[in-house]
Amino acid sequence: MSTTAPLHETAARVSSPSPDTAGPQWIVSPAFDLLFLMNVLWPVAFWIGYEADLIGHSALQFWQIYFVTTPHRWITLLLVAGDPARFGERPRLFIGLALGIVGGCLLVQSQTGALTCLLAVDYIWNAWHFASQHDGIYRIYSRRADRGVAPGAGQSWLFRLSIIYVIVRVAGWSWQFDALDETLSLTDFAVGGLFLAMLLWEWCRPRRSWGRSGYFTSVILLYLALLQAVHFHRPDMVLVLATASALFHATEYLAIVGWNITDRERKQQARGLIRKLAPMWAISVLMFALALGVAGWYADQHWLKAWLTINVMVAFLHYAWDGLIWKRRPAVR
């Protein structure tokens, strides 16, 4: 997990509140957290996609893929390449991972002539990435609310593995195998029960944090809905909820990146291009997303295979580099 645990180590950066006061409940502010971290409007995205016709849902996916999901992956490259201070922490590792990923992807494609194997790896790695990110943000909330104390390893693993199970089920691969699907249907009840138990435990904790509990509840309800859709063989609901989960993930990532950039600028840790963009980060991200979205759409129309290959490489770099940039730099002795 050394290079694939986004935000897991970020929680350790959050300062512990003073012993006589409760920690802050929000990472940025109630309104910001509700909209961009807890993504409380994800049911609205689901409703729009579910109630709309095929054209309406395609429009929702269009904006999600080109203007949210794609930019959130590419921005990781900017965070590393545009900040000499961050890149300088592990230059050899950043470069080595980039060379290995690009070389490996080109080798696989040249040998197979297709992207099937790479897309399978992407799906599995992405599942771990989703789960790690949700757990990492939950740990940030927990440290702020519990005076620097993060959830135990056991709780983190239960949370992550439950999310990974749902994402793996979402692919619908088991539907064609009746015996296997029947067995997994029983497992669905166990995982669903675990989700509910974790949710009950969260709301019964003695130290209440609306930020932490709200975030955890929003994530749990989303994946419970996905699990239910898969369990009852509702591909229409699976498709819309998967779109909502992708929006949730990418939005919270861009939000937590913005929080981190602001924090680094305040502490004068940022350098290079990132430091120049920090005072107008929101506008910069918006322009970046619009430009990349338009470019991605155009590339899809004219150079589909090449653009897809490049995006797979960027996705792998996003997963790998993301795990590094959120790790604390080892103390110098």
Automatic annotation (TrEMBL):
Keywords: Membrane, Transmembrane, Transmembrane helix. Residues 1-21 are annotated as: Disordered. The chain crosses the membrane at residues 26-50, 93-121, 183-201, 213-232, 238-259, 280-298, 304-321. The keyword Acetylation does not apply. This is Uncharacterized protein. The lineage of its organism: Bacteria, Pseudomonadati, Planctomycetota, Planctomycetia, Planctomycetales.
